[in-house]
Amino acid sequence: MTSAMDDLYHEIILDHYRKPRNRSGELEPCDVHVHHSNPLCGDELDLRLHVEAGKVDKLAFEGEGCSISMAAASAMTEAVLGRELTDADDLAESFRLMMHGEGVKREDDLLDGVAFQGVAKFPVRVKCALLGWMALKDAMDTYREGEAEHRVTHE
Amino acid sequence: MLDVARIRKDFPVLDRQVHGRPLVYLDSAATSQKPRVVIEAMARVYETYNSNVHRGVHALAEECTESYEDARGKIARFVGADPRGLVFTKNVTEAINLVAYSWARTRLGEGDILLSTQLEHHANIVPWQLVQPIAGYDLRYVPVTGDGFLDVEAFDEIVSSGRVKLFAVSAVSNVLGTIVPVAELAARVRAANPDAVVVVDGAQRVPHMPTDMAELDADFLGFTGHKMCGPTGIGVLAGKPELLEAMPPFLGGGEMIANVTLEGTTFNEVPYKFEAGTPPYAEAIGLGAAVDYLSGLGMDAIREHEIELLSEALDALGAVEGITVHGPKDPHARGAAISFAIDGIHPHDIGTLMDREGVAVRAGHHCAKPLMRVLGAPATTRASFYLYNSPDEIGALVDAIDVTKKFFEA
Fold first, then answer.
1. Of B367, B374, B387, B401, catalytic
2. B141-161 pLDDT per residue, tens
3. Which residues contact A63 (CB under 8 A, 6 or more apart)?
4. Residue B88 in 3-state DSSP?
5. Which phi and psi (to 5°) does residue B251 adopt?
6. What φ, ψ does residue A29 adopt, rounded to 5°?
7. What ipTM is given for this predicted complex?
8. Nearest-by-Cβ selection for B356 from A5, A42, A67
9. B378·A44 Cβ contact <8 A
10. Contacts with B395 (C-beta within 8 Å, 6 or more apart), sequence order
11. Which residue of B lies nearest to A123 if distances are taken between CA atoms?
């Protein structure tokens, strides 16, 4: 296995893939449910979110997709749990910039999300890593707009 | 029997390494590699006689035109077509669009059925969908059975209405490899409606086995150069000349005209009526060289070689725990592509890991999303073979699958 491969399939990523955190198709109580799909890969992701006092109180993801997409969603749930929505927005932006090779901000806050740095070297896999984070941003936007459901297809 | 070791020397790219390992190229269903004779034929055009075709009276123009028309003749003979009905297009996608816009748009209407199948590549679905609202026909699809064949009962039921006026079908599935009994189905369509035309997508057949338009009973046959050792940017629509003559032009411009005034235009004869603008003549000449190369080896021998590879690959994959092979299990019933699934591992992970072992396979939906829905899988991994693949490479495929499985099991 080459070193680039170790970067892509970092031990932390494989750990989230094999033992996903906060993975469930149900959440009680639940304020908002978004469904994101990436038709080119066939990846599907459901994210459910409960907000309490302006913070991410609970969230759960369920989906079908490659190891990178599922592991990234798992790591995302841990990184944003308990955060103010605006703070989670900022963290999502940090992750997005990192995936586009624009440096690592808030390294400590991203927790295991930092392990996805190496994925940036595999341009076709970047959108896999971003799927969960895009679903999160959309879930928070949908919540702020007072809606409970949203479906997004990424082209 | 093909001498694969010798054939491999004809393909410069097969010498290269990928991630420090010898390249094992199992993605020929996406595009084939090119033999030196094709690369050289195209270089010869540009280095010795490059000139626009069918224009000008100078020596280079004549040489280039002769070479271009010579390629048309060779390619027509290769599939048993009339050279007057052999239209050069960009690829099979453009060939099918040509039939959709020029034939289906003007000949079909309400009450007619345009019948395609669930086995098709998007190229044989989307053009018919685009023209449907203009022409107003019913667009129907023959379903696929669980074992990867067309559902003949459902086909018969639709055809028996006598309303099927165009039947568009792939000769070989690009995902499952299924060989479709085109002639048999065409006969049934024609028996129910003698005016029906049959459009065959030959993209996955023409490169791999002997193909004859009359034996297929096709009115139109599309295929693409880059999947058959030829260059990109060149494809073919082979049609019956009398059908093409009666059709309006598809694209307008130079070359396709007889006379132009500002009030109107009369059109050139076929096939030129359908070749607007400067054609990709270097690519056409390259495809002619590819056809010579394939004919020199013999399409029967190529097919025989691929059946041997398929038998070995199906046996080898069948012996790996946790692998599901989609499509027909009999190598004689399928073309040179095998789609498979590995339990619990997404095709994109499989593709990435196998690439690191030097094995190039395709992971994705293969531009056949309706078929993926039938398979109940968003994507598959596809290994596809061609004349230059050796049995050793099937060993490399199985080894790479083992590495992939172990990696995710750990």
1. B367
2. 999 998 899 999 999 999 999
3. A43, A44, A45, A46, A69, A70, A73
4. strand
5. -110, 145
6. -75, 165
7. 0.82
8. A5
9. yes
10. B316
11. B352
